[in-house]
Amino acid sequence: MNCTMFYWQNIVRDCLDLYLSFMLRFKKPLSIYPIAVLSESILAGWLLSEYQASWWAWVGTCAVSLHLAWAGFDAIAIGLVWIISLVWIGAFAGSWFKNVPWVTPGVWAAALAVVWIFGLILILTLAQARKVLLAARWSQTQVFWLLAIASWLGLWLGWLVDRIFFPQLR
Fold first, then answer.
1. How many domains does the chain have?
2. In this structure, is the dihedral angle defined by the CA atoms of residues 61, 65, 66 and 68, taken in order, positive or negative?
3. Can you give the pTM of this predicted structure?
4. How confident is the model at residue 167 (pLDDT cuts 50, 70, 90)?
5. Where in the sequence is the domain holding 28, given as residue range(s)?
6. Which of 44, 87, 92, 113 falls between 20 and 30 A from 137, CA-CA?
């Protein structure tokens, strides 16, 4: 187990090193947006993994993040509908809290509200990052790939963090 954990820690460290070295080549104000997208995507991936979201939630989140990376503020409506759908589905499927003694309906509702707020922050950050990077004369293709890689890498790292560091929460 320790050998496997050490191996995954090296992969995570190498991915972050590669990403940060890529971002440090650019001006500091520009690099904060992709780093924010990466950080928020890590949180989103961790939350999806922690809530044991099904495969369609992962695919939908990846698709919405790709669309936001390409369209920016024009895709906010789709992103909001996706986040609201996830929260409502979580609310309806949330009957599991009856089986966990420390999770009350109030705690479950607060958790869903926090997930909704984090989703909104991620959507707005992706859209703003695209706008800022395009204003800095990056091509739309470069911006798309940078934000797509940042969001997908973040989702994957969030899943990995949940699997390695928080397996006891299942």
1. 1
2. positive
3. 0.74
4. confident
5. 2-169
6. 44
